[in-house]
């Protein structure tokens, strides 16, 4: 392994983080340590990979599984991440008990109690439903900000569109599948970036936020 100062360290075990073979070996080992073990010992509990999400019917069942999993991973010389391992109560209109943890993030979505509308009756009810997570929204804003488009007055609006449209389409397609309204703060941020760019590029819009917004809105309607 080559250090930042270019010194070399001989490895006797393990693979470096970021190495090509590292995720392959990790998945193979976890398939043995977790996947096959869950199928064999808890065949009635649905589970999902990535951060490891297991559905249990009761808190007692969840506590027992957590203890079993800790023991299993210890045998495999692994351990649960303490700060990420928790039991979450899926609170909604029918499950009304009080528990310290009633939300979690998974694959960029935040799952928590929230008011949703019944598609048939249009009535509101409390459901345990997903929407884009706060962490994911922060990452989306960071990606757009790092493009530094506000100061790119040397490019056209078409150039900006070619740059960000593939990103926006992908994010809207993925995160807009559930509770698309949760994306509105991020989309407003994109609009603010475009307004700031237009006000810098065109002298007639300098200092005129409302006029710039109307100009961009008219462009979007004719596009």
Which blocks of ≥5 consecutive residues have pLDDT under 50? Answer: none
Radius of gyration: 24 Å
Give the spatial strand order of the biggest sheet: 3-4-5
* Count of separate DSSP helical elements: 6
Q: Could you tell me the number of beta strands? A: 5
**Fraction of residues in helices?**
40-55%
Beta-strand proportion? 5-15%
Whole-number average pLDDT?
89
Write the layout of secondary structure elements.
Layout: H1 22-41, E1 47-48, E2 53-54, H2 59-75, E3 104-106, E4 109-117, E5 124-132, H3 134-146, H4 157-175, H5 184-201, H6 209-222
Antiparallel strand pairs: 1-2, 3-4, 4-5
How would you describe what is shown here?
The structure is a single chain. It is built from six helices and five strands. A three-stranded antiparallel sheet has the order 3-4-5. A two-stranded antiparallel ribbon has the order 1-2. Helix 3 packs parallel to helix 5 (184-201) and helix 5 crosses helix 6. The mean pLDDT is 89. The chain starts with 21 loop residues before the first helix and ends with a helix. The longest helix has 20 residues, at 22-41. The chain is flat. The chain has 223 residues and is mostly helical.
